[in-house]
Design brief:
The protein is mainly alpha-helical and 508 residues long. It is 54% helix and 6% strand. The strands form 4 sheets. The chain has a 3-stranded antiparallel β-sheet with strand order 4-6-7. The longest helix has 33 residues. It starts with a strand and ends in an 8-residue tail after the last helix.
Length: 508
């Protein structure tokens, strides 16, 4: 059983979110968090009975309708109307892991005591997670500005016993799913519908899962790169630490250090010390500079996403110590949108860089020293067999699509709410694109692992550096050497799963 995740009102970690989303770790709400929730609710209860005060979303309508006054006897109906009217999402449902990440992020945000909900809502979210109830949430419909309104409304529907959910493999109504799990729908009170749907929780859910996968991908890319470097008899000189210290870019220094570690004690390197080649192609010679830049971009994005793990992003916010209710814009997704787009661009570079090495690996090329060439497409029987020819085609196809997906969504804005929401982030579009970019980057890296391992087999009995040899053996534990043509799809998929598991990234 994964470690229990305790929502205490403090920031959760990336590991906490992954544990709940992917490993179904149980969730508990601490007594400290329940006290914070109750203190904020007391402020709302005082305001709800005073029609004379104008408080957004409590005694007014929403968005452009905020000029409309709502009397105390209509305030509960207003919250139900809000959720139902905003549940207008379309498209395929979100994955289970993204939905679960959304749910725990929503619970954690509400538990920080600035949203004004009853404790019942946060406790029920935890109970749903622990029971395995997964609301069916259409993936499209958020502009990422006044919160992820449409997706969060579909989540909220299940909480109130409406909408649809998956429970124990069955698609049920929200009411049926709760009943079969032994839970009851919540009853909404003043401000609670708004608190449930005003937030960046879909963007942040995808962002957290993506950053964890990106960190694995960049470390896997360094391993694949080291394998290609050794297989292509590339020089180790460009990895000299003096070069990288002289520039001072942090990610570059880390990547150079790791690549040196992976190729240490290389018999292959010793075999070509006096070769005629003066310089290697950039995808070998500039690997620390390019992969290091991706590392730096990932680090920046991780910082943004980590800050959001401590955020409260609904509106208005309650400050119980002062008794204030402040209307602001923490729901706006721009910080996340920019980082999500940057992460997609960085991974596009990683995938493109990898594909160019694949092209070189299945050579030969005129820059290779005579006598060190391998057969075209790395087949022992060229002509009769095509070897790994089409693997490079597939990588090229994937990179082409990744480049299209890397176009930033956050540079666009289409105003909503009759102009009240006149600049939106489109961060959820950025997030959806990023998920595809990560998946396809993993596929490109799997293809490089496949091709580089084959080239290293051609270099036997000479062995590469110790880390690269570990990687070759790991690949060979899942995919056999290509001796004659066979279907490659299964090989690539096996190495995709190997990459996703983190085993490649862990090699030193």
């Amino acid at each position: 059983m994964p470690t229990r995740v305790i929502i205490s009102g403090q920031a959760l970690s990336f590991a906490d979110i992954v544990a709940v989303a992917r490993q179904h770790a149980p969730v508990t709400i601490s007594d400290e968090a329940l006290e914070k929730i109750r203190a904020a609710r007391m402020v709302i209860d005082r305001l709800a009975v005073d029609d004379s005060k104008k408080v957004y979303g409590i005694t007014t309508g929403f968005g452009h309708l905020s000029k409309m006054r709502i009397s105390s006897d209509q305030q509960v109906e207003l919250q139900y109307n809000l959720i139902r009217s905003h549940a207008a999402g379309v498209g395929e449902p979100l994955s289970e892991e993204v939905t679960r990440a959304m749910m725990v992020l929503l619970a954690a945000s509400l538990a920080r005591g600035h949203s004004g909900v009853h404790a019942e809502i946060v406790l029920t979210l935890a109970d749903m997670l622990n029971a395995g109830i997964c609301p069916l949430i259409p993936s499209r419909g958020s502009v990422g500005a006044s919160g992820d309104l449409a997706p969060l409304s579909h989540l909220a529907l299940t909480l109130i016993g409406e909408g649809e959910a998956i429970y124990q493999g069955q698609k049920l109504s929200g009411a049926q799913a709760l009943e079969q799990a032994g839970l009851k729908p919540i009853s909404l009170h003043t401000k609670e519908g708004l608190a449930l749907i005003n937030g960046t929780h879909l963007m942040e859910a995808i962002a957290v899962l993506a950053i964890v996968d990106a960190q694995v991908a960049v470390r896997s890319a360094e391993v694949a790169c080291a394998m290609s470097l050794e297989g292509l008899l590339g020089s180790h000189v460009p990895l000299d630490p003096r070069i990288h210290q002289r520039r001072g870019q942090a990610g570059q220094i880390v990547s150079a250090t790791r690549l040196r570690q992976l190729v240490r004690d290389s018999a292959l390197n010793a075999s070509h010390q006096n070769c005629a080649r003066v310089q290697d192609p950039y995808t070998l010679r500039c690997a620390p500079q390019v992969i290091g830049a991706v590392r730096d971009a990932i680090e920046y994005c991780a910082t943004i996403f980590e800050r959001e793990l401590h955020a409260v992003t609904d509106n208005p916010l309650i400050f119980p110590d002062e008794g204030d209710v402040l209307s602001g814009g923490n729901f706006h997704g721009q910080p996340l949108a920019l980082a999500l787009d940057m992460l997609a661009i960085a991974l596009a570079q990683l995938a493109s860089f990898s594909e160019r090495r694949v092209y070189n690996v299945i050579g030969p090329h005129d820059w290779e020293e005579k006598g060190a060439e391998t057969t075209l497409f790395l087949t022992p029987h060229p002509g009769l067999h095509s070897g790994l020819m089409i693997a490079q085609y597939v990588a090229a196809s994937l990179v082409n699509e990744i480049k299209v997906l890397a176009h930033p969504a956050s540079i666009d804005s289409i105003p909503t709410s009759a102009g009240m929401e006149d600049f939106v982030s489109m961060g959820v579009t950025s997030a959806h694109k990023l998920r595809r970019v990560i998946e396809q980057t993993q596929q490109v890296l799997a293809i490089e692992l496949l091709c580089a391992a084959q080239l290293l087999d051609f270099r036997l009995p000479l062995l590469p550096g110790s880390g690269v040899q570990q990687a070759r053996e790991l690949v060979r534990a899942h995919v056999a050497t290509l001796k004659e043509d066979r279907v490659l799809s299964q090989d690539i998929e096996a190495l995709v799963q190997l990459t996703q598991s983190g085993q490649v990234a862990e090699i030193e």
